[in-house]
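Case study: 5-carboxymethyl-2-hydroxymuconate isomerase.
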Amino acid sequence: MPHAWIEYSKNIAEEPELKTFREGVRDAMLETGIFPVAGLRIRLQEVDCLVGDGNADNAYIHLKIRIGEGRSADVKQNAADLIFTRTSTHLKPLADRGPLAYAFEMQEIPSAYSYKMNNLREYIGKI
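Here is what the predicted structure looks like once written out:
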């Protein structure tokens, strides 16, 4: 853990900021210093959505990060602030060119309901 889901409106699929956003999210998550690289999963998914008044130029990006429990409120707040700052900065050129709604949320998953089978730590760095 953590896992990130990025949804975006199809009208921005070819924008350069979106093409590098997944890596930017990963880099920001690692920069927090609280997430293990072997636990990162980042999904990027185009969605057919209606944004605002329905104008075809309206763009949308939603980033949701789910993390395991056990970190203090301050640690989570600092991580969320850093991730939002980095990702917002990454997307600013896109927002400067047209309408963009960007939302970010970080959710904690109770460990009692989080099951895993993961041997990636044995391979990370060997591949």
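For the exam, be able to explain this: The longest strand covers residues 59-68.
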